[in-house]
Structure formats: structure tokens, C-alpha cells
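Hello,

Our lab assistant flagged a job as stuck in the queue for most of the afternoon. It eventually completed. Since we weren't sure the result was trustworthy after the delay, we are filing this so someone can double-check. Below is the sequence as submitted and the structure that was eventually returned. Let us know if re-running is recommended.
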Amino acid sequence: MLKFDSDLFLQAVGTEAIAEREKIEGIVDHISAKGFSNLFLIGAGGTIAMMYPYEYILKSNSTLEVHAEIAAEFMVVNHKHFSKDSVCIFASVSGTTKETVAAAQFCKERGAMTIGLVANPNTPLAEIVDHCITTGHEKHSFDTFFIHLYMLVFRFMHNNNEFPLYNKFAKEVAILPQALLSAMESFEQRAEAFAIKHKNTDYHMLVGAGSLWGNTYSYAMCILEEMQWIRSKSIHAAEFFHGTLELVEENTSVILLKGEDETRPLVDRVERFAEKMTKELFIIDTKDFALEGISEEMRAYFGISVNWAVLNRISVYLERERNHPLETRRYYRKMEY
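-- returned structure --
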């Protein structure tokens, strides 16, 4: 695969990420035994988008109170559900994201329990939080963060007596990285073909729902806009018919992200409309991937990781076809704003 080291992926997202299971379970068990009032999932940009799927999972599978919050807004909104009894989970690849670091300090000063996901230790976020879970390196950090968030969220549900399949989940999350690798390999030709066809396309609509809404939002904003300077719009499938549908024309690029959770019919509805209105409909459906060893019960949850893994195969081909490195920025972290 282009610009991809399979052994490194399996080491980072598999061996090293899965090795954190005991530590993560210990953190959650300690917090659960102590007691807490609610969970806050806090991030900025790509990392708040990363939190949305887990907010969805908790809302649809648990009675635990959960709030996914944008870091900068969280600090000014005077959230009435936040207290010293809250558990706040943060994520930052660099460990230096200004808004996320400030939000972690804000929560820590008010006595809340804080957990941080970072790529590297000895960074501001890692040093502020009560519990830090590191990936050790930045390569494949989002894929690894997804694994760690699965472990955190499902352990909280398990301890709340709401997820009887926890042992099954734990076994399957350990084999998920190999399933992700196989999914990427099977998607490679489609990823390359999309990038070749759309290297000069200047606008994309991305539509998703449920556990894939965060990926939809993140890929449009953080990859297409930030890393490729391509205009895009992320649209929730449930809202597509309340405005955006009027902009679909014969050559409009519409990318549908289909998962296997309860919201799939919402995306099906958009698909039925789009296939009649545009010649440029591109569907990424987690059902199309075999995911050997993953049970039907877990597919809906693990679709978050599957979808993100294959989306990023498109990214490396867009980078090549557009001669636009994914690391190139004009403004982000280049100036004060």
C-alpha cells in the first residue's frame, strides 16, 4: 500500500495499543469504585470529532450521563452539569493543543477527574491530567486513540452493569487491528481511483450519521479542508433534507459514509435521493468489509475504526495526485490568531 508500513501499523494500533488494556481497566475501575456523576468527552477539531462516536455509543447503550464538548466553548458556557464529580476525558496528538490543554487545566482546578490521551509523554496535557494514556509516537495516533476510547467507554458501561458482552468485546478489540489492515488492503484500489478521478474536484458533500457522524465531520474539516484545501461540507444524514439537498446537481460529489448502527436507514434515505440526482455518488459502507473474527454484535461499534482507516487511504492518494503534502499548512500553527 502507498506510504504505509503494515508492520508498524500492527505494532502501534495492535500490540502497543492493546497492551494498555490492563492500565485502562485499572483507571476506570478506580473511578467507578469511587463514584462519579457524569462523563465529559472534550477535544478540539479532530479530537472533538473523535469523541462524538463514543458519545453516541454511550447515549444509545448506557444510562451514564455523557457530554461531548468543544474545549474552547466548554470553558465559557458555564455548563451546569459539570462539577468536581465529573470525569473528563481529553485527547490531543501533540499534547499541546492550546484549547484542550486549557480545558484540562480548567477541569483539574475545579476538582474533576481528568484522563488524557496523547501521543507523547512529557507534554502539557500529559502533565496536567490525573491519568495519561500515551501511544508513544504520533504515527497512527487516531487509530490508536479509537482503540483506547473503546476500552475506556466500554469498561465504564461494563462497570455500570450495562454491557454483558464485555469479555467478548475485549477479545475482539484485540484482533480488530488485523481486520482494519485487511479492510484497508481491500479498499486500496477504490481509494486510488477516487483520488485520480477527483484530484481537481473543488467541492465535496460528506454525509453520515450515528457513530460515523464524527468521522464525517472530521474528514471534511481536518483532512479535505485543512490538509488538502478542498472546500467541503459535512452534513448529518438526518438534516440533509432540511436545506442541503437543494445544492445537489448532476456533477456534485456526494460521499456517503454508511455504518451498521441504528441510524443506517437515515443514510439509506440520502442514498436513494443522491443516486437519482448526481453521477458522482461515492459510498463507503462498513458492511462491505469482511472483518474476519469480528462478530455481528461488535461490527456496529468497530465501524468507527474501519471507516476511519479506509478514509485515510484516500488521503494519501489525494496527496499524491494533487501534489499537496498532508502536512502543508498556511495558517494553522503558523501564526497567532
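-- support follow-up --
The delay was a queue issue, not a problem with the job. The result is valid. Residues 166-198 form the longest helix (33 residues). The chain is about 50% helix and 15% strand.
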